[in-house]
Amino acid sequence: MKTILLMATTADGKIGKHSSHLVDWTGKEDKQLFIKLTKDAGVIIMGSNTYDTLKGPLPNRKNIVMTKNSSRLKYEKNLIFTDKPPKILLNELKAQGYEKAVLIGGSQINALFLKNKLINEIYMTIVPRLFGTGLSMFSEETDTQLDLISTHQMPNGHILLKYSVNY
């Protein structure tokens, strides 16, 4: 099971101003990339704060929301709230026939997957914008080596970096 972390970050390395900040600052090209990659995988995994910034489950893909809040645990056709550990969750998705999952944040969920060595690749769009303060990609300290797969210059000064994670 391949897990891709898909993030947009400002030039100063922030994925948002705060945990409830809407991701409306990344631009059209990044949104198109997001739609293509997540629909191709068929499943997205996120934390509850990230889900709360959306207007509901994203269509045409399974939305999995990781939460510690037991009152939110529920299952609908394309929306699942779960408290399962990441490894078990990925094993279940693989058993259901999924080959890829796209991790879309936030920083706590990203750190949880990275700490458990479950992220295979990172697709990072660098947006020419500065927040100064805000959320980092990971909520915990890490020292993880990445190997560059490719770079792609997008319109409006955006740069897409693709990395493999070298554990």
Q: What does it look like?
A:
- With 167 residues, the chain is of the alpha/beta class.
- The protein has a single domain, classed as Dihydrofolate Reductase, subunit A (3-Layer(aba) Sandwich).
- It is built from 4 helices and 9 strands; from the N terminus they run E-H-E-H-E-E-E-H-E-H-E-E-E.
- The chain has a 9-stranded mixed beta sheet.
- The radius of gyration is 15 Å and the shape is globular.
- The two termini are 16 Å apart.
Task: Output the keywords.
single chain; 167 residues; alpha/beta; Dihydrofolate Reductase, subunit A; nine-stranded mixed sheet; globular
Topology, please?
Elements: E1 2-10, H1 28-41, E2 43-47, H2 48-53, E3 62-66, E4 74-75, E5 79-82, H3 86-95, E6 100-103, H4 107-115, E7 121-127, E8 145-153, E9 159-166
Parallel strand pairs: 1-6, 1-7, 2-3, 2-6, 3-5
Antiparallel strand pairs: 4-5, 7-9, 8-9
- Helix residue percentage: 10-25%
Strand order in the sheet with the most strands: 4-5-3-2-6-1-7-9-8
Secondary-structure-based class equals: alpha/beta
- At the fourth level of CATH, the homologous superfamily is Dihydrofolate Reductase, subunit A
Distance between the termini: 16 Å
The total count of strands amounts to 9
Tally of distinct domains: 1
